[in-house]
Amino acid sequence: MHMKPWREIAIPHKDVLAGSFQQAEFAADITAVRSGKAMPEYQDAVAFFQRTFITEGMRLLLIQVARRLNGEGGEPVIQLQTAFGGGKTHTMLAVYHLASRSCPLADLAGIPQIVEQAGLKDVMSAKIAVLDGNAHSPGQPWKHGRLSVKTLWGELAWQLGGEEGYAMLKQADTTGTSPGKDILVELLAKYSPCVILIDELLAYVRQFNDAMQLSGGSFDSNMSFIQALTESCKLVPNAIMLASLPESEVEAGSDRGNSALLALEKIFGRVQAIWKPVATEESFEIVRRRLFQPVDNEVAKEAVCRKFIETYVAEGARLPVETQESAYFDRLMRAYPIHPEIFDRLYEDWSTLENFQRTRGVLKLMAKIIYRLWKNDNRDMMIMPGSLPLYDNESRNELLNHLGPGWDPVIEKDIDGERSETATLETKEARFGTLNAARRVARTVFLGSAPASVSTRPGIRGVDKARILLGCLEPGQMSAIYTDALHRLADRLHYMSSSAEKNSDNVRFWFDTRANLRREMEDRKNRFNSRNEITGKMAEVMKRLVTNGGCFDGVHIFTPNSDVPDDSYLRLVVLNPDIRYYRENPHDAETTVSDMIKNNGSKPRHRSNRLLFLAADSGAYSRFEDCIKTALAWNSIVVDVRENRLNIDQLQKKQAETELANIDKALPAIARECYRWLLCPAQYAATEKPIVEAFQLNTGTSSLTNEIERVCRENELIIDTWAAVHLHARLNELYWKGETVDVQAMKFWEDSLRYLYLPRLKNKAVLEKAINAGAASQDYFGIAYGKEDNRYKGFAFGKAMAQLDDTLLLISPSAAKKFAEQLESEKKATPPAGQGTGPDYPPATQPPGAGKVSLSGDQPAGNPGVSPANNQPQSFIGTVEVTPAKAKLTLTEVSEEVISILNQIPDAEIKITLEINATFPGGISEDKKRAISENANSLNFKNKTWE
After folding, report:
1. 3-state secondary structure 146-162
2. Rounded Cα distance, 273 and 282, in Å
3. Short-list 186, 263, 191, CA closest to 224
């Protein structure tokens, strides 16, 4: 079923639609009603009760009035005391029209039921006296023809009995002294049933002062009159008095007013006030009746409310808990077409402001909001916090009048201005713009948080995420889009603050006139334009991503070309952020890579095939740079606070620390989005021109180094396992040509470091494994450890083990087979042992052994009957001189090239001693001597002698 918007179900009254209402129309004036000058809706009893919702408090009060006027009990004195705009005067008007009606009770909506609840059949008409503290001042007599009435008690007597009644209190009125209780009882009894309505009593009595004699008597005489009147009403069975008092000291005004309020409260303190102020639930009906015509299509109204409930149930814990209860459907029905959340915020938050009128203020505000929404053809299903037209000056000012100065720029810049951040965000992102999501979120946060900026009441500040969603979400929409909009706004708005991490369930958001630290951060961010600062921070982030080099022996981040070593180690070069890769025009990045593989600074680079490159994406770089500036800005704020250069409160300090932690946490992921291109120099044949291939990395994986390793492995950019057949193919293609039938294995290794058309092996061990795999068969190559006079030393062809060193030769299969046949024929021609000598040949195709052992075609010296194993070396002693400047590199090579091979021999006993002999012709300082001695101790040196 298609859901209708509110404007098609609930039609506002004509004055609301026309915008013709006046601000004063919502202010009930009991004196205007008594004088016949009020608006029809207040002046006419029938019209008044048609538009008046009888609240629980008003119902109980009218029952008391009805009983009292009929002499059936009821409270004689009722004190109406509540906050400004709480409905006191409106309640008095209900009593006035009930007691002074000129029409049958049946014509007054809701009254017959009240009379029935009072146990009565009718309510007697009564004399009514209205004493309005705002209508006259103590020094301003009432004029009734030629008669001048000076005091409240004189006016009371006149209104009840005219000249006859006034005559009873004339002397007291003339002298300004309070009449006694007896004469008041006599007055009330004579003109009963009667109702005395005293409105704004405090406004009258607080004007008395000791320095000036006023015609209305004195402060004490008026206090005495009020006390005597309350006592007199108790003694007259069908007389009732209602008096209104303000609730707060702010309404009381001056110190004199506060003193008067305390005195009046003591007088009325003996009388229990049964009247209750308007409850939030009751305000729904009050506002609806005053602003909207009766709803004719109840089916459509109920359908909308049920759709809201279904949406709330589907969202579950994302919304406030009360939305999951069945009672919330009843609240929606009673408040329709205004969402209950608006009433909750106005009555719970805005009513804490001293000058906000609970009923009148809400009516004035909602009338202007409804008018603007109607004119702008608002199509929301209900009028929600997110619907508030804060862009409209009239609606905005009605709210801002209660908040004080400073809020206009907040709304213009952050909430609902034409050039506000919310409008900009909705323009840039259609998913927000189609729902006005950013503005709806900002309006909801404003409505729920703005009063706290000026309220004196303590409480938890801000609006939580669940209540923000409640103020925005309509049926057919997903809460996720509003959550996204909220987080985006929290990142960019100047006047919005939050209490915790944005993804936390406990986070609260609020607006304030004080710009948050975000503006300070934005200002500072614009100062970070130094390439050194930005590049330095980027380098820190990249180090966190590639600390573990993975398949690379070295990682160089933003390192100048001349500082990237030209050696056999496999290296990843992270290009400077100024060199970015652009898929549509990769020329700049490719030129830089080509230059780096050709040159090592001012010198030529010889081992070009050991470098791969990581480059930034041109499109993603601007975001990375912006986030880097943001991190630098937040860090500068945190440092300045720590060093007392910036004075902020604890909440802002926590915010700065949280924001810095959040951006630092996010930077690695943002860096990965930026540095997503792996550039690999390549050459598919020796005769072709080198190129630069680009491979896009998956930025969603957990590790950048693992992702680079995966791409290198799958695309064979780096080979960590190589088959002998591929080695044979390369040797056959490039080295075994013409009369050249063998090649040094180390030459192939060196060439693979140099030439891009050769495979990029991970290390030398990969080549050694491939050689050993091939040496075990006669299909790929033979091996030897030298060549002299066209004879191979240490020759083996099939079932052999090879040791990769400078002497190892790889022989083409045909040449190896031919030489093996030659050796076999020579072996057959050799006389048996002891019968002479012949051509030498190797005894068997055994592995070279432990160490660099050279097997030649000559028979080893010694007894021919001794087994070959006994003629192999039994020990190895090696000594190498190490240049101090290259000590680390040399020792590493010794470990990899010699010691690691010795460790492969199962029964080898290896002892390694490092001897350092240093002389200092000029002596050595004490601090360096101490440092060397301490380090030697920690490294367990056996000998550490100083001479």
Report:
1. CEEECCHHHHHHHHHHH
2. 19
3. 263
**Of the spans 195-204, 356-365, 427-436, 541-550, which averages the highest pLDDT?**
427-436
| Distance from the first to the final alpha carbon of the chain | 101
Query: Where are the extended beta strands (E) located within 618-775?
Result: 677-682, 691-696, 742-744
Residues 6+ apart with CB under 8 A from 810: 731, 742, 743, 744, 745, 748, 771, 781, 782, 783
Which positions ≥6 away from 603 have C-beta within 8 Å? 566
- Partnered with residue 78 across adjacent β-strands are 242
Listed in order, the ranges of the chain carrying CATH 3.40.50 are 38-268
Strands 142-144 and 127-132: what pairing?
Answer: unpaired
* Structure-block tokens of residue 498: 């939050």
Q: Would you list the DSSP string of 7-58?
A: GGT-PBPHHHHHT---GGGGS--HHHHHHT-S-HHHHSHHHHHHS----HHH
**Domain spanning 38-268 has what CATH number?**
3.40.50
| Rg of the chain taking only CA atoms, in angstroms | 49
Q: Which among 404, 500, 482, 479 has a CA at the least distance from the CA of 443? A: 482
The answer to whether residues 495 and 410 touch, using CB atoms and an 8 Å cutoff, is yes
pLDDT tens column, 675-691: 999 999 999 888 889 99
Can you tell me the distance from the alpha carbon of 113 to that of 59, in angstroms, rounded to the nearest whole number? 10
Q: Which residue has the tokens 């009050």?
A: 286
Tell which residue, 256, 170, 174, has the closest CA to residue 212.
256
CA–CA separation, 783 and 786 (whole Å): 9
Kindly state the DSSP code that residue 568 receives in the 8-state scheme: S
Omega of the bond leading into 294 within 30 degrees of 0 (cis): no
At residue 327, the pLDDT reads: 93
∠471-481-426 over CA atoms, to 5°?
90
Structure-token match 């010889």, residue found: 606
Checking if the pLDDT of 833 tops 60, the result is: no
Task: Enter the tokens of residue 679.
Answer: 């550039």
Which residue's structure tokens are 């301490």?
A: 934
Which residue, chain included where needed, has tokens 């089916």?
299
Name residues whose C-beta falls within 8 Å of residue 410's C-beta, 6 or more positions apart in sequence. 446, 495, 511, 512, 513
Pairing of strands 239-246, 77-82: parallel
Are 777 and 724 in contact by the 8 Å Cβ rule? The answer is: yes
Alpha-helical segments (H) within 643-703: 650-674
Q: Is the peptide bond before 193 cis (omega within 30 degrees of 0)?
A: yes
Question: How far is Cα 809 from Cα 735, in angstroms, rounded to an integer?
Answer: 12
